[in-house]
Protein 1
Amino acid sequence: MARRTWQAGISAMVTALGVVAITLTNAPEAAAASPLRDLAAAKGVYFGTAATVGELNDSAYKALGAREADMMTPGNEMKWDTTEPNRGQFNFGPGDAVVAAATAANQRVRGHTLVWHSQTPNWVQNLPATELRQAMVDHITTEVNHYEGKLYAWDVVNEAFSEDGTRRQSFWQQKLGDGYIAEAFRAARAADPAVKLYYNDYNTDGVGAKSDAVYNMVKSFLQQGVPIDGVGLQAHLIVGQVPGSMRQNIQRFVDLGVEVAITELDIRMPTPATAAKLATQASDYKAAADACLAVAGCVGITTWGLSDKYSWIPSVFPGEGAALPFDDALQAKPAYDALNRAYGGTGSTPTSTTTPTTPTTPTGGAKSCTASYAIVSQWQGGFQGEVKVTAGGSAVTAWTVTWTFPNGQSVSSVWNASVVTSGSGVTAKNLNYNGRLDPGAGTAFGFLGSWNSANGIPSVACTAS
Ligand code: 9MR
């Protein structure tokens, strides 16, 4: 709050004393050190990021987020599988933990997400239509009520369209028909009259069939009085492929009368990163940021994480990654520098001295790997874990990760690895599609586990062949 008051004071001075304003805005030393959140606030927009409760246990990462971002999106903690795992049994513990951390860092929060085809429990998906409609309204009402007054916005409905602009044939669509999206927005508005209500999707960043469909839906909602305040463009982009029509697309939504936010920005590349790819990525970040910042009504940009250490990309797109503005060691990449400049700063020379290596043909070097273990989300008695595996300086064809749980935890289901347990000991091996890793490349596997008294992080060991 002190920060806002100070900025308000400066802008008042700027209005009254133009000469002083010129002196202030021309001082490069002041801007050079500015975190994105301060630059954003000076422009009347925000810079946000996403994090899970597990990631916020990493104190250096948490501090980086607090320094750079003034908006926070919980990565998983407000999704249905966490918040209502069984009908009528609500669990807001993990989401509350993210909100508490954000509040402590003087950040606002975007709620994500109420109605989605993914990360929604089977009990919801298996309901007959009439019960499903009631379950949707009950879920929205209870969750939005719980967070009333605490959030900036809700992603009410997420990813409801297909690439060709038709409705995604999800269980929502198939059982409830076209009307479910408007019903979801109405239920959200009834539960919180003030929070901004967003429709959020990917591959809607530029003008195209899918964004046309969202545009037409928003237009008809506004005509019919269905409450909607904003459109979220996720912007999960690929290096060298930022849509040229992004600014135009943002502008047309704003012209309709809703606000726009870039909600999940990351720009992935084939790994390992090279200096050339990082340079292209930097100009891509600038292009995406410029598209938003050029349009009054594009209220802010959120990146889906800050550091490559915690990106979702390598586990979903094997062989791709390095998508975020900070590297695995939390050092600023050229992308950060470009983002900082786009927000009006003078950039920061990347502090990383890591020179990206060009892959060499792996012949005969000692094969090695490293692994890192993280709790993605945690609730009473259960948790979701993720282990990232990174090859050393030589290519590997297979890897094994082992650990011993310190507090008697156990693993119940696993994806992207095969696991054998013996007491508290866990041995995880690659499957046939994710054993081969180029030098320095990574992959990840995940699991659901249970815990009782404590859920300590085990030390993990990785061996490769
Ligand atoms: O970052 C989230 C990751 O931890 C989850 O495993 C994944 C499961 O679908 O969801 C990720 O976040 C997604 C977001 O909620 C919606 N848009 C796409 C994001 C990346 O998958």
Note: Residues 1-32, 350-363 have pLDDT under 50 and may be disordered.
Protein 2
Amino acid sequence: MKGGQPRVVVVGSMVMDLVFRVGHRPKPGETLLGEGFAMFLGGKGFNQAIACHRLGAETTLVGRVGRDEFGDRFIRRLHDERISTRFVSADPEHGTGVASPTVYPDGGNSIIGVPRANLALTPADVEAAEDRIAAADVLMLQFEVNPEASQAAAHIARRHGTLVLLDPAPVHAHCENIDWPIDFLVPNEVEAQMLADCDSPEEWARELYDEELEAVVISRGAAGALVIDGRGVREFPGFRVRAVDTTGAGDAFRAGLAVMVARGRGLDEAVRFANACGALACTREGAEPSMPRLDEVLSFAGANEPAG
Ligand code: RIB
């Protein structure tokens, strides 16, 4: 740790989630009556920042919303959580990002997102936060903001010895062949398969890993996580919970991992903790409300064994 408290900077998205609960996946051409609707603050960057803060890290979010009602709600929520909005700008042209997570009866989801203002985040916005990135232990990046801004952040981090954790989500054309300095690559199974284009989780991990990385960590939902680093491949079973809504569980997992790495903990301990964070997030509806707090994770992990 560079300071007395773990420090994390998230350069990432803010997205208003318009959540539809449905009984089954609609077929092409089918109009389906949903079973429930709710709006939650979300976006991978926002979720990860909220989770890092709740898990005890001093957290800075660098991002962009629109000048609209959704944007105002993000700013208010950040104030309520006591997370600084100094590096959150309001875009004059583009609206706040939106997404429509569709949640199925087993708690699983599919998400369509339109990043809007998130794509207008600039390298200059990130450079304004250089001191924060330099003082941080970990920088968290995803693929929901302008990749040029993320790239600038990754280079600043490398210059100052800040570890970079990339969540390559969602995989999309602009982010292929990225060449940023990264220490931890943390895809889920869908993203790992898209990036590696081979058959099994172990093959994806081997394909994505190279010695310039500290590790590749593939989150596997209820199945836990698979890790590859200089010590080889290891599996970490997940915790069994009754899933209500898995939206944001991957963000809770990544935040758990980042905070433990920022605390200087070993990777195996960090992944077990991350699994507990992800599992807890599945037990509640919505993205932001399901990001867990440190005391909850510690008592959950103390009272439950991973499903071996
Ligand atoms: O990871 C979950 C998040 O992905 C949701 O909150 C949604 O906004 C999408 O960005």
Note: The chain has ten helices and 13 strands.
